[in-house]
Amino acid sequence: MTATVPAGNIAANLREVRARVEKAAAAAGRKAADVTLIAVTKTHDTAAIEAAIAAGHLTFGENRVQEAKAKYPALKAAHPKLDLHLVGPLQSNKARDAVALFDAIHTLDRDGLAEAIGAEIKRAARAVKLFVQVNTGEEPQKAGIAPRETLGFIDKCRATHGLNIAGLMCIPPVDEEPSPHFALLLKLARDAALSELSMGMSGDYETAIGFGATHVRVGTAIFGSRA
Ligand SMILES: *Cc1c(COP(=O)(O)O)cnc(C)c1O
């Protein structure tokens, strides 16, 4: 884990990203307050996260349970309002750790995982915000449920596993224009009567806000490039 950007720059980068979020929201006729900026800290050390907290930021994302367990319990104890989001793939056997540590999980994409998360939420009596990840590009190697199976999966999450689904999440293919993927996620969310959309990363979060993103996941633009 490396701190690639000095603390002062992290504060300045956060100001810049927040300003761009506000501009993109205004351009879309939306309120910036309706867009949650998730600062994605994977590979970055606690000093970098502390710098963001000192700059007034409390919403963070990690893509691996193990890495989050190493970094966040102490930070959460010191900053009780810290809001932690899992944005990477989750194995069912890590559902207990994930439900204990994270306030939101963005990568629910299969029945076995829905069952495991449902059982843990019940057992721990914890409120965890859940997003269903959709593989909008239908890439064989990528996580996420196929677009045509999304509505059925959401119904099953509710009816069979007792889960309250907040919204949808996607990661567009790296080599494609993201807009059609954001548009597809918005359409699926409307069809499912879901109001939250997790989409947009450092390179395309302003575009995503134009398509209704309520959660943008930004790492590099805040913390610098990853080793
Ligand atoms: C790493 C990661 C991000 C942040 O990516 P940047 O391009 O560094 O902003 C967003 N979403 C997910 C799922 C990630 O794994």
The CATH homologous superfamily name equals: Alanine racemase
CATH fold node name: TIM Barrel
Strand content: 15-25%
The CATH class designation is Alpha Beta
- Which spans have pLDDT < 50 for at least 5 consecutive residues? none
Q: Helical amount among residues, as a percent range?
A: 40-55%
Distance between the termini: 8 Å
Number of separate helices = 9
Structure classification:
alpha/beta
SSE order: HEHEHEHEHEHEHEHEH
In total, how many domains does the architecture comprise? 1
Question: In angstroms, what is the radius of gyration?
Answer: 17 Å
Tell me how many strands there are.
8
Mean pLDDT: 96
List the bound ligands.
pyridoxal-5'-phosphate
Tell me the major beta sheet: 8 strands, parallel
Strand order of the largest sheet: 7-6-5-4-3-2-1-8
Shape: globular
Give the second-level CATH assignment, the architecture: Alpha-Beta Barrel
